[in-house]
Amino acid sequence: PRKANARTASGASSLAIELVRTQVIMWDSGNSVGDMSGHTKKVNAVAFRQSRPFRIATAGEDKMVRFYEGPPFKASKERPMLTSKEGDLTTHTNFANTVRYSPDDSKVLSASNDMTVALFDGKDGAPLKAAKVHAGTIYAAEWSPDGKCIATASGDKSVKILDDGLATMKEVNLCAGAKPDAGDMQVGCVWATAGVVSYSLGSDLSIIDPESGAVTATQVGHNQSVSALLWAKGRLISGSFATWGEGSGSKLWGVVRTWDLSTGLASSFAGEGHTNRVLSLGLFDDGTILSCGLDNCLIASTLSPQPQHGAAKVQLDACPVSMGVGGKLAAVVTTASTLLLVTRDKLGTAPSSIPLSFEPACVAVAPDGGAVAVGGADNKVRLLTAAGGEEKVLDKHIAAISCLAYAPGSKRLASGCANKEIVIWDVAAGTPLSWGLQGFHPTRITCLTFSAAGVLASGGVDGSIIVWGDLPAGPFKPPPKHKLHGSTTHAGGVSALAFVGDGAVLASAGLDACIKTWTVA
After folding, report:
1. At CA 302, angle to CA 458 and CA 362, rounded to 5?
2. pLDDT of 218-235, one tens digit each?
3. CA 91, CA 65: separation in Å to the nearest integer?
4. What is the largest CA-CA distance in the chain?
5. Which CATH architecture does the domain made up of 6-219 adopt?
6. H or E segment to which residue 509 belongs
7. Start-end of the WD repeats (predicted)?
8. Residue 469 vs residues 460, 479, 481, 483, 488: alpha-carbon distances, Å
9. What distance in Å separates the CA atoms of residue 66 and residue 82, rounded to the nearest whole number?
10. Domain residues of the chain, as ranges?
11. Staple 230 to which of 214, 237, 297, 344, CB 3.0 to 4.6 Å?
12. Are the C-beta atoms of 151 and 159 separated by less than 8 Å?
């Protein structure tokens, strides 16, 4: 069975785990202190009564709210709820999504897909009152710290502040754009020091003043894997995607955020962005940001005066695999085994297309824009001119090339492969400078980046991040300057790295939708 949620009891070392078959276990020993059968479908929420006599309330997809006495905990009875009109006893008519005890344990609430909130006595579970308070599914409900109010978050794109008798005190409609869509659905809420914080399906956090009902701030971020990072003009830029729905009704679009690392807050880019996942980010020498998406488009964006998409758009004739940007040049390799080249002054026009005789896996452009490196699935790296003519073939790896990065000055190139090895190349000579950097990453290397001072960092599928020190010439295996293990970095692996400022800080992103910064100086 799949774990859905967990709640701990105050003053007791017990833990309730939400499953189709709910159990209570001692946190410190793992011993069972209750086998709470009764639900016939998945349990969505569980709540502890924090004072004696202890009680546990559960809410499930079988439309039931159940109460348990203990310890050891056993079923008391399923408690029906009261309808808002006749006062007849009935159950929820759809999934019960949440259940919460009030701070003083005198009451417990439940909220459901049937748009109702119900109140029960906190000790014996007797039904007190129920009311239909929204025009859509209620995904979350929380008591205020003083127990006098309830905040609810709903699929009708609103948050409501109710009194403890379920009368509406404030209603806040949260629609991000002129045209409300599914991304505005409110799926979570919590009372915090700053007010009520509500979370939308589109990943916006809205901070609401419960007294006035005003939205005092909106914070954005990512809720899907982050695939690209870029340091530009004193800000960190990240690329990802967002999605909702299933089947033919699903929607997916690209997401680019700009982060102020001094506050940890992000801003959205205005304008029309990508309609699919953002694959790569790059920076032209004039400060223009270029993003590459799986919608087969390149989009030029600016940071000043405000983050804005749409300075120019380039349509690609095939699905991109990787993008590199340097100087005035951008290069994209595609699933059609082509290399597409476009210069900054010709954005908006069709890129030049150069057929490749191998399957490309990654691409990088020299910082001065004078050369292009393409890594192949055939274990080789090709060095090409800015016009796409092949100059050298670098052959040292024994597995498919997975990532490339030029060092500042364009004289060195780092390549990583699926065999966990990194090679540093002399670009002019086409020969390896340092090799044998193998075994430090236990799995495929996913990303490489150089700091402004030429320090190399690498990330892997296992989540490990390595910051390398001086790399002497030859087949040496110098110990890393820093190594961060996957248990402390990103669940699912590292997808992107970028040095911040002068290189004293390294930013990393992963499949866990998180961005982290590390002091590496």
Report:
1. 30
2. 999 998 999 999 999 999
3. 8
4. 86
5. 7 Propeller (2.130)
6. strand 505-510
7. 36-69, 89-130, 131-163, 394-435, 487-521
8. 18, 8, 5, 11, 21
9. 15
10. 6-219, 223-244+251-319
11. 237
12. yes
